[in-house]
Amino acid sequence: MCDPGAVFSLRPRIFQLEFELSRGRTAVIVGAQWGDEGKGKIVDVLTQTFSVVARYAGGHNAGHTVIINGKKFILQLVPGGVLRPECISVVGNGVVIDPLAFLKEVASLRAANVKVDGNLFVSNRAQVILPYHRMMELGSENAPGRVKIGTTSRGIGPSYEDKMGRRGLRVADLLDTQLLRTHVENACREKNMIAHALFNSEPLDADKMFHEYAAAAEELRPFVRDTALLLNRALAEGKSIVFEGAQGTMLDIDHGTYPFVTSSSATSGGAATGTGVPPTSIDTVIGITKAYCTRVGGGPFPTELLDAQGEDLRKRGNEFGAVTGRPRRTGWLDLPLLRYACMINGISWLVVTKLDVLDHLTEIPVCVSYKVDGSEAEEIPAQACGYEKIECVYRNMRGWAMPTQEIRTVEGLPAAAREYLSFIEKETGAKVAMISTGPDREQTILVPEFISALGLKSQQ
Ligand code: IMP
After folding, report:
1. Closest C-alpha to ligand 1, atom 10
2. What is the pLDDT of residue 12?
């Protein structure tokens, strides 16, 4: 019998980078861990030369912090490209959109003089989150006997459930007042009965909901487009597109630590279905990883630190959720998972963020492989309980024990930090493209090879 391990390994695969990127004007930015890797900042840096940014999955469960005119914002639905007025920002069909949350975000952007008219578009095929989705989520998260996922309570999962159940409301339907009324009445009747029977929830008022969402629809209308057409036209005109992923690989509905995942395709494959741009038009995938690991909510986390060291990483990295404020769980870098993320997404470039959080350490443990029952395990478990059998094998890397926040070139980094990055490259087969050493735009080291491959202008 054929042994797949003999012909295919999760160990490094060397990509034909130059060939791949010489025609590459589209790139997917994907989280290589459990989200919160710092994708927002990287999208912001890349939009210097990309014309369009398109979100393809998730909803307002995502969040990244940006500073505009000295004011702090948390962008949840609006793509990071909106901060550059010349850039077109698209909320794709794979996103679930809470119209009230979207309009609130738009209002706060307008108040800060950020351009949102004529440069921000929402897919007419995106699914709409309605109040009963939150009601169902709150009920089921707290119901006895249910696996507690620790969701963001934004109604994301129930909205995707309705999408797949073919009973969802799409943005185009939201704009159709008659259809909206019928949908809200029917859906409320059904959800109220279910929520009452299962969770003893208070019923929602369909009439009130209809009027609130009909008004929101009118405010939303100017943003709505057939964004698949818009994006494919942009491509035909030679425009470059960044596909902005939300969450991360290990939260992907298919490839993550199921059932402790979000309800969408967070991995790079989702960029095609979530925007209507064919996979043949996607040139490269850039994975974002922290120099260590974090996760919010429940579920497996092999390298988790449940001690003072973990608490220290949380404090130094300010690891608290941007959306819910929950403390993030912390742990060492997990190379088996990173290799898995590279395989699933086709990552050719890696961006390593929050390197500075490790600045104080003289020694940095990194998980290099997993063992199950004493033997090396190359497969990532399909079941959440499979992670319980994993024993992490660590290698202690040399720490650099000096500040890196002001360093702007790879050569300027301490030798031990360069060793750390080279080790990641060697173990994953992906090339390090950028290194982030602090929250500001300038605290970014761009690797020259990456700058020329993507046609970026150097900031340094
Ligand atoms: P949901 O996406 O709200 O359904 O939550 C499902 C799981 O994904 C929970 O563990 C959340 O904490 C996690 N999650 C959702 N969005 C994010 C994110 O943007 N960053 C990190 N974790 C997230």
Report:
1. 297
2. 42
Q: Residue 90 to residues 94, 247, 285, 361: CA-CA distances in angstroms?
A: 11, 17, 19, 41
Tell me the whole-structure pTM to 2 decimals.
Answer: 0.92
Measured at the CA of 157, the angle between CA 77 and CA 331, to 5 degrees, comes to 80
- What is the rounded CA–CA span in Å between residue 245 and residue 29? 6
Ligand 1 site, residue 151, Cβ cutoff 6 A: yes
Calculate how far, in angstroms, residue 335's C-alpha sits from the geometric centre of ligand 1: 22
Q: Is 11 exposed, middle or buried (0-12, 13-18, 19+ CB in 10 A)?
A: exposed
The pLDDT assigned to 323 comes to 79
Active-site annotation, residues: 36, 64
Angle between helices 131-142 and 177-199 (to 10 degrees): 20
Are 23 and 439 spatial neighbours (Cβ–Cβ below 8 Å)?
Answer: no
φ/ψ of 123, rounded to 5, equals -65, 135
Q: How far does Cα 387 stand from its chain's mean position?
A: 22
**DSSP 8-state secondary structure symbol assigned to residue 12:** -
Give the bridge partners for 26, in sequence order. 241
Determine if ligand 1 sits within 6 Å of the CB of residue 294: no
Atom of ligand 1 nearest to the CA of 299: 10
Non-local (6+) Cβ contacts of 228 within 8 A are: 92, 93, 123, 125, 275, 276, 277
Kindly write down the DSSP assignment for every residue of 42-74, as one continuous string.
Answer: HHHHHTTT-SEEEE-SB-TT--EEEEETTEEEE
Pocket of ligand 1 contains residue 263 by CB under 6 Å: yes
φ, ψ of residue 325 in degrees (nearest 5) = 75, 5
Q: Please write the tens of the pLDDT for every residue from 4-36.
A: 333 444 444 333 333 333 323 899 999 999 999
pLDDT at position 5 is 37
Which residue's structure tokens are 């449940």? Answer: 306
Closest of 384, 399, 385, 290 to residue 334, by C-alpha: 290
Question: Reduced to 3 states, what is the DSSP secondary structure of residue 163?
Answer: helix
- Alpha-carbon span 70 to 429, nearest angstrom: 39
In the numeric block, which tokens belong to residue 221?
């209308």
- Helix (H) / strand (E) containing 54: strand 52-55
